[in-house]
Amino acid sequence: MSKVVISGTGLFTPPHSISNEELIASFNAYVLQFNTQNASAIADGTVAALEASSVEFVEKVSGIKSRFVVEKTGILDINRMVPRIPERRDEEPSVMCEMAVAASLQALERAGRTAADVDAVIVACSNMQRSYPAIAVEVQSALGIDGYGYDMNVACSSATFGIQAAVGAIQSGQARAVLVVSPEITSGHLNWRDRDSHFIFGDACTAVLVERADLATSPYQFEILGVKLKTQFSNNIRNNFGFLNRADESGIGKPDKLFHQLGRKVFKDVCPMAAAMITATAKEAHIEVPGIKRFWLHQANLNMNLLIARMILGRDATPEESPTILDTYANTSSAGSIIAFHKYQEDMVAGEVGVICSFGAGYSIGCVVLKKLAAA
């Protein structure tokens, strides 16, 4: 069976950033407007008053200080609070395709590859901007790849599940190399009027080139020692928007058609599941926990990552052991753990081991154990 490596990664970061200060100022202005407009109904108890938020609250519960978004002004407009992303003509590249191509070209350059070396594209992310044609096929065409592509969605674990699918395609002989791309426009499915979640997400796109080890020439190779996936159904993180309940302009903002979660239940359920999965995946790859140099964890919530690392190590992890990008990128769904991997890998030396772990709605958890290889 062919050995498989990750030979290159890429990252597209949107040009706009929203600080906590900007976001809270906008949200609190909306709260004041809502409570003023509904003062009579609030007084007679038929409408609940909204509660203002604070920068301190956001940072305490999440560790987030800012987030990147593809469009900023619509989000901060208290009469809209939805990004303004114009619909494009069918002949134009989709927004997701543009993000995916930018990240993919970085990954290919880092791996020393061109489109001619790639046989498949998997677009793996939480929300697709359309049902079909597959975004992956559009990306494949835009890059000039002669092969196949398909979309997949396992929420925040999509990238790690995509890596497993890429490994399977390579080991079965279907492909020499596969691009796994995660264009996350999370700002489009976030309820910016919800105090408990409006600060959580940001936009970004990652790309990972997975290829046969005997063909790879990149100096940035990581051998994939093991991959483990798990799903367990839960309604604690959910988004009900879909073509069967498509909303008109007056209904698209209905809370249940956007991201919503029972955060405390998610925290309680997912942390031990993720810790157990990481330990089990490493064990199956014949790696003991003390031998793991780095944990590239899903960047959903700083407190979750601190607890997961503590459960695994029996102590607090150092920032070098479990790096975070959450403070500046926020939760970028499936892209989060890959952003951490992309930004925090170059100091690792040949033979050192790390684990990528993602977890999210479903519940879904994906773990990938990697070993840094010597430069070719």
Can I get a quick summary?
The chain is an alpha+beta fold.
Question: What would you note in describing this structure?
Answer:
With 376 residues, the protein is an alpha+beta fold. The chain has a domain of 151 residues: Thiolase/Chalcone synthase (Peroxisomal Thiolase, Chain A, domain 1). Helix content is 32%, strand content 22%. The protein is built from 11 helices and 13 strands. The strands form 3 sheets. A 9-stranded mixed beta sheet has the order 5-4-6-7-1-8-13-12-11, sandwiched between helices. Strands 2-3 form a two-stranded antiparallel sheet. The protein is globular. It starts with a strand and ends with a strand.
List descriptors:
376 residues; alpha+beta; Peroxisomal Thiolase, Chain A, domain 1; nine-stranded mixed sheet; two-stranded antiparallel sheet; 11 helices; 13 strands; 22% strand
Largest sheet: 9 strands, mixed
Strand content: 15-25%
Terminus-to-terminus distance? 21 Å
Query: Structural class, from secondary structure content?
Result: alpha+beta
CATH class of the domain at 222-372 equals Alpha Beta
Residue-averaged pLDDT, rounded?
92
Task: Provide the CATH topology of the domain at 222-372.
Answer: Peroxisomal Thiolase, Chain A, domain 1
